[in-house]
Design brief:
Arc Repressor Mutant, subunit A, 11% strand, three-stranded antiparallel beta sheet, single chain, 6 helices, mainly alpha, globular
């Protein structure tokens, strides 16, 4: 449980959520992450260490650069929601909401989908929909390319699918 809480706290930061997205498609160094996010190298290094210490990213490779060693980090998407308390998940949800607003301000005209729903459905329908949502998320993460790769477009997918208590 402590590891799950550490993971949630590490990812409950909008900048770190952006880093996880960047590191989905390809391993990147702190310098590359800093350039892409327009932040200081020291800041990128710090946040990458927090994510690494929480086991959210791995060191994919190391390379010698100017007498030092640059680590290349990678995020492997696909974890299920951790079994932890609602209070511990709240920081993650707040970070997702803040990051969604930032991304929303960068949207372009064209195709998209906006859904907000609080519905009552059968357990069978819920299981089917949840399976499709997870499959879609995995598909999009698997297809992710390095930022600014020719022929690609930046997109957003923010998903929060959960069962609610009856009132």
């Amino acid at each position: 449980m402590t590891d799950e809480i550490t993971s949630l706290r590490a990812s409950a930061h909008p900048l770190r959520l952006r880093m996880l997205s960047l590191l989905t498609s390809d391993a990147m160094s702190a310098a590359e992450v800093a350039r892409e996010l327009d932040i200081a190298h020291a800041s990128a290094s710090y946040h990458l260490r927090v994510l690494h210490d929480a086991d959210l990213i791995t060191v994919d490779a190391e390379e010698r650069i100017r007498g030092g060693v640059a680590k290349r980090y990678r995020y492997h998407h696909g974890r299920d929601e951790p079994a932890t308390s609602a209070e511990d998940l709240e920081g993650q949800v707040q970070a997702m909401a803040q990051e969604l607003l930032r991304r929303f301000r960068q949207r372009t005209k064209g195709k998209g989908s906006f859904t907000d729903a609080e519905l009552w459905v059968t357990p069978a329908v819920w299981d089917e929909v949840l399976e499709r949502v997870v499959e879609t998320s995995h598909h999009l993460h698997a297809a992710a390319q390095r930022p600014r790769t020719e022929g690609t477009i930046p997109v957003n997918l923010t998903i929060a699918a959960f069962r609610m208590a009856a009132r």
